[in-house]
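Run log, item B.
One chain of 290 residues. Sequence copied directly from the ordering sheet:
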Amino acid sequence: MTATYRCCCGEPTECCKVWCECSDTITISLCKRSRTTEVYACTSGLDCHPAAGTLIGSNYEAVEVSNLKLQRVTATVEGCTGCCVYDVVTGASQTGTIKAWRDGYLLWCSERDGDECVTGNKECLGSINAPLSGSSGNWGLNTFTGRLQVQCCDASSCSGQSYKASLSLHIQGGNTVALTTTDCCTQTTTQGTLAVELFYDYDWDCRHQSRWVGTCPCDLMDEPGNDTVSFSVTGCFDLQTPVCPACGDYAVPTCLVDPPVIEYCVTNAAGVTCTNPNNNGSIEDITGCV
């Protein structure tokens, strides 16, 4: 961002009226977020069950938003009128897409067949590649809101001295035929709904108002900030509840109990994948600025 000495607002109680000379529309892409869960047996000595520490299940889920279009509008921000913000475009002109993946299995059947032990898994596999322009075919877009804006860091005393940019996004939808679940116990394979939900918030560091003069949203890629992200890709078995005691060397905060008596410990690992070398570690890109 280009720093200047002058203030960008006429009154100290107004929000910083920046971006009013910037592009009518911009696009934002987010880096891919993923979560991997691994499931280990906790108990030993049970007939026809794996020993403690054996990997008996895993799950991978991920979500990615690309080419999200936002349009510049005027809005009231913290009591200040005429502020320029960017809201997500809704309807046919929205170019953004959301992708989601779910791939998991869990030991589901374990029984003795003569002298042999026979085991089998419950498996689920699915993916979504859907438009954010609205519902289409088997895809239903239920929630879609988002805004990029500059606002006071302290709304209770908006003195004009400290502002931050913030991006907030909420997407929820599902595809009714995107998930395939296979159950070894019933020897059936069924098709069902895979749902995805993403809450994404990014707050850039607070800056004096003069830092925002002459900037546009693309300049934010060079500025530091922090994100808060929550997402889920659901439709099959849950590997993260209920809470139970730790399991020896495989001590983790959660486990599952699968009939009849075997306990499983669950571990989780999160990841972020960005492909643009100019990304900021959370946002892949902001484009379309003049």
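Observations after the first pass:
- Residues 25-287 form one domain.
- The chain is about 0% helix and 55% strand.
Flagged for discussion on Thursday.
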